[in-house]
Amino acid sequence: MSELMSELLQRVDAKGVATLTLSRGSSYNSLSIALMETLISELDLIDNDMSVRTVVIKGAGKGFCAGHDLKEMLDSGEESFYSCTFNTCSKMMQRIVSLSVPVIAQVHGVATAAGCQLVASCDLAYAAESARFGTPGVNIGLFCSTPMVALSRAVSQKHSMELLLTGRLISAARAEQMGLINQVVPDDELDLRVTDIAILVASKSRKALSIGKTAFYLQREQPLKEAYETCSQVMTENIMTEDAIEGIDAFITKRTPIWKHR
């Protein structure tokens, strides 16, 4: 097990899973520029760490993430600072999507505005029954336009617009119905459920996970014919990897595969 500890972010590695904990609990883990830059840097390190096959993002304190640090932004009052904040956030969300291993959001408390965007950007998401989600920017005259990018790609148009236009918070059960999260879990079972899922995903070939995740986001934006052409080529390349050859042989001979992650 390895650990990284800082005032902004904590990282603990175990069983192929890197758990990243946002550590600004006193401000509901609001996304200051420093926190976002720290998370991006850690994801860059993870991308080159072959011992990591799954990432979990969670929040310290009473909630997952309440969005941008509005106090930091108002204290600045500079357009250049606002631009830097939103551009850094966009870079962070894209880094999660482009990461070579799956990312799981573990949500408790609130996930609002850019915090909801963070959930929508992750590959999987599990939430406590008491969790709440929303994009309430419209309530303060600041429409959640950047959160809209991830949200509109994670759930349907009507559901996205409901959240964006009303600014209301929704329950974890409603978020599950919308497809924003995978599953609602009793509060006291959230840690165990996410750990089980993370370890299960981490037990797979890192090479296969990377190939599959990259192809998923690529084909999703393509027309049907082009998507099939892309994924046919991807599968052809995939089946020629060492792990695919090992996995197929293990399946035929009824044994557990030994991954080399290449």
TrEMBL record:
GO biological process: fatty acid metabolic process
GO MF annotations, alphabetized: hydro-lyase activity
Pfam families the UniProt entry points to: ECH_1 (PF00378)
SUPFAM superfamilies per UniProt: ClpP/crotonase
Keyword field: Fatty acid metabolism, Lipid metabolism, Transit peptide
CDD domains: crotonase-like
PANTHER family: ENOYL-COA HYDRATASE DOMAIN-CONTAINING PROTEIN 3, MITOCHONDRIAL, PTHR43602
Similarity comment text for this entry: Belongs to the enoyl-CoA hydratase/isomerase family.
Entry function: May play a role in fatty acid biosynthesis and insulin sensitivity.
Name of the protein this chain belongs to: Enoyl-CoA hydratase domain-containing protein 3, mitochondrial
